[in-house]
From TrEMBL:
It comes from Marinobacterium nitratireducens. Keywords: ATP-binding, Nucleotide-binding, Translocase, Transport. This is Hemin import ATP-binding protein HmuV. InterPro entries: AAA+_ATPase, ABC_transporter-like_ATP-bd, ABC_transporter-like_CS, P-loop_NTPase. PROSITE patterns: ABC_TRANSPORTER_1, ABC_TRANSPORTER_2. The lineage of its organism: Bacteria, Pseudomonadati, Pseudomonadota, Gammaproteobacteria, Oceanospirillales. GO terms for molecular function: ATP binding; ATP hydrolysis activity. Part of the ABC transporter complex HmuTUV involved in hemin import. Responsible for energy coupling to the transport system.
Amino acid sequence: MALIAQGLEWHRQGRQVLHGLDLELAAGTLTVVLGPNGAGKSTLLQLLSGLESPTSGAVRLDGEALHGWSEPQRARQLAVMTQDQPLDFPFSVEEVVRLGAWPLGLSPQQEADHGRRWLQRLDLAQLAGRNYLQLSGGERQRVQLARVLAQCGEQSRVLLLDEPVSAMDLRHQHLCLRQLRRLADAGMAVLLILHDLALAAQYGDRVLLLKDGRALAQGPVPEVMTAALLSQLFEVGVDVRFEDGVLRFSSFVADDAFQA
């Protein structure tokens, strides 16, 4: 087991955001977190990554409390992509991606080669010399994902990503998620926060349904992504069908659902 969270609780301005959450991220597994806005998904990722400390409970990486790892040690073991990636300097795309490789201690040539590999894998090679600030939102998100993936080296164990493909077109969503799937298949513990049910079912091994800061359910995709649980999670009707080996989803809302 790469990363384990036990009894996580977190309070913000007198309000409890997470309630006694347990989660295990196993090596070689891709876990998807689903939930409505304000459910505590981003807070959970911040606690799992060490960006915030829990009010109570603990996060352990390979059996050791996460706060016991120095920042350089943690950066070599764990990479994280939050929703907000502020960057106001006119770096080139290649320079931004190479920033991610800094914790690996590579030589300049190795760092350049490593960054270019991720530029190629995420279909960014043609943008390598472009000014990052002149890119579209989807292109910037792809560059930031490449930067985070460039942080992954031989020691890397855990990858935590908050809505990493939300601004991308369909082709690049699948291209990027396939790369994340490959990393999980190669032995990393990968956690994604997503909103797209179809993508979650297609690429995930396990799912955590988070509602009001509590785990509504968690487990393998077929056991958790059911019509009953998803309807309870999102408070709309959700139909789930299994066709040609694929889970398919549709949603509906009653006519009076939004009446005052």
